[in-house]
Write a structure and sequence with these properties.
It comes from Paenibacillus terrae (strain HPL-003). One of its GO terms (biological process) is regulation of sporulation. The two termini are about 20 Å apart. The chain has one domain: MYOD Basic-Helix-Loop-Helix Domain, subunit B, CATH 4.10.280. The chain is built from two helices and no strands. It is about 85% helix and about 0% strand.
Length: about 60
């Protein structure tokens, strides 16, 4: 459960960073695009963690 909470915190931190960069540089700046890719990867990690947990049988 700790790693899930840590990942959620990283997601929120990186989401806020994306918003800040977008406000400063606009949508098509290299920094914004790079941060968007970082956030995408974190979202993918979270989804993999979530769906792996769903597939575990209840014993």
């Amino acid at each position: 459960m700790g790693s899930e909470k840590a990942l959620q915190q990283r997601l929120e931190k990186n989401r806020q960073r994306l918003y800040d960069l977008q406000a400063k540089y606009g949508l098509d700046h290299m920094y914004v695009l790079r941060q968007s890719m970082v956030l995408d990867e974190l979202i993918n990690q979270y989804n993999r963690m979530y769906y792996t947990k769903l597939k575990k049988p209840i014993a």
